[in-house]
Amino acid sequence: MGIFGPPNIEKLKAAKNFKGLIGALKNKDYHIQEKAIEALVDIGKPAVEPLIWALKDKDYEIQHGAAEALGRIGDERAVEPLIKAFKDGMSLVRSKAVFALSKFRDTRAVETIIKALKDRYSDVQINAAYALAALKDTMAVEPLIENLKDRDSEVRKAAAHALGEIGDSRAVESLIEAVKANEAKSVYWVYGAKDALTKIIGRKAMTSLNKALKAVSSLKKALKKKDREVKREVQEMKKKGIRCSKCGKIIGQLATSIAEDIRRGGGVIIGGGGSLDTPMYQCTICESCGSVFCDICQRPSPDPCPKCGKSNLKPGFADLVQKYYKF
Q: For the chain, what is the radius of gyration of the CA atoms?
């Protein structure tokens, strides 16, 4: 630091004073930190070794700034030290180390960034996804697909973006599922998933897919509405019960089937239709109009229905009754 104020970054840069420039990385003034990083990047390769040593500094701000500068310089000597910084550093340092590693087309760097997708801190996961988006390495496709299920919406959004940038068709099905599962909730990160799909399958195909997804969404809403209506009707029917069309008496279900009644010697006249083992209601029903009559008002017979006049009176087999009175 200067005697009467902030460090003179230009003078430190001209003198290649690495100690002074690296010390400025922890300056309280953010702008001084940024200028120090710029100066180190401008110096380039001669600054690499001092910056690698700075990655081991106890001050996380110095580590953080050193990692950014090394990534921007892009010297291969920095790969292993950055990987070590990722393994040993706190979350802010790991996050910056991951982003710095994305500047290197190195398998070791890619493998480390992929591991960062499962970091316990979401900011590291997010930076890892954006780093992989820049690298466009297909090794990352499956791990990124897994991150579409993460609890953090920002992690999911970053994963979708990376998959779109990589452009691998393996991601299409998972991205569609993500859109289908969340579109109805108007979740903002879904737009990122749609953008990713557009990049992979093309705008024309995405337009068709959007129409199909909207149709599915509308159908689901209609089915839910219908389901609610049916449930409401069933509840109303249960409250009202089945009543005789003549006298209004509530009609109950028999405790036994006709077959059981015959076995006990009941001598019931069946009158046609239905299975003997089918549960019974204590009624006669007209198969033409669905009118029901209690066993006092009307018995099964060839006589015409008192309601519609057609000769279609049957015993109250449960399956026939429930055809008209759904429960």
A: 38
Token pair 């005789």 is found at: 244
pTM for the whole thing? 0.58
Do residues 177 and 145 lie in contact, with contact meaning Cβ atoms separated by under 8 Å? no
Nearest to 194 by CA among 215, 217, 171, 216: 171
| pLDDT of 234 strictly over 90 | no
Q: Which residues contact 36 (CB under 8 A, 6 or more apart)?
A: 7, 9, 12, 21, 22, 24, 25, 27, 65
Helix, coil or strand: residue 56 = coil
Work out whether strand 313-317 and strand 250-251 pair parallel, antiparallel, or are unpaired: unpaired
Q: Which is higher by pLDDT, 320 or 129?
A: 129
Which whole-number Å values give the CA distances from 47 to 26, 40, 68, in the listed order?
Answer: 17, 6, 13
Q: Provide the pLDDT confidence category of residue 269 given band limits of 50, 70 and 90.
A: very low
The topology (CATH level 3) of 9-217 is Leucine-rich Repeat Variant (1.25.10)
Q: DSSP label at 140?
A: G
Domain boundaries of the chain, sorted by first residue: 9-217, 242-324
Six-digit token string for 175: 């991205």
Q: Which two structure tokens, joined as six digits, stand for 13?
A: 């840069």
What is the residue whose two structure tokens read 């801190």?
Answer: 121
- 250 pairs with which residues across the strands? 243
Residue 63 has pLDDT above 70, yes or no: yes
SS3 270: coil
